């Protein structure tokens, strides 16, 4: 299936999302913040089918990571997730970099569906 990177500072959310996506047959790497995520993206030479990242994190937030990753690997697909309205508004300004913004909290069915749509090239409304 697909090679994914989950970037999330909350260990329980990170683990839950990774397990749900692994059960779908995806290969999933994880990172605990944007700086670690950007390092993983660089080490993989941008060869992730999709990066799913929280926005609000220590060290480097998901938006800064997305901008830096897109500068290095312009074709990289990035989906952000947040529980904060103001962060969602910031992310929605990143057309051409971020393909979707998922609201937290989410169900396992929601993350599976949104990731499936992102991998298929269908941008969620």
UniProtKB/TrEMBL annotation:
Record-linked InterPro entries: Bact_response_regulator, CheY-like_superfamily, Sig_transdc_resp-reg_receiver
Entry-linked CDD domains: REC
Protein name as catalogued: MFS transporter
4-aspartylphosphate, modified sites: 54
Record-level GO BP terms: phosphorelay signal transduction system
Response regulatory domain ranges (all copies): 3-119
Keywords for this protein: Membrane, Phosphoprotein, Transmembrane, Transmembrane helix
Natural source organism: Manganibacter manganicus
Membrane among keywords: yes
Transmembrane segments: 62-80
Source organism superkingdom: Bacteria
Classification via Pfam families: Response_reg
């Amino acid at each position: 299936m697909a090679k994914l990177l989950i970037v999330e500072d909350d260990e329980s959310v990170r683990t839950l999302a990774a397990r749900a996506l692994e059960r779908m047959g995806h290969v999933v790497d994880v990172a605990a913040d944007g700086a670690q995520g950007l390092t993983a993206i660089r080490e993989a030479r941008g060869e992730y089918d999709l990066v799913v990242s929280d926005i609000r994190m220590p060290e480097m937030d998901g938006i800064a990571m997305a901008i830096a990753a897109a500068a290095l690997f312009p074709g990289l697909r990035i989906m952000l997730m947040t529980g904060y309205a103001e962060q969602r508004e910031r992310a929605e300004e990143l057309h051409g970099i971020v393909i979707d913004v998922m609201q937290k909290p989410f169900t396992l069915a929601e993350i599976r569906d949104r990731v499936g749509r992102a991998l298929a090239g269908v941008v969620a409304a």
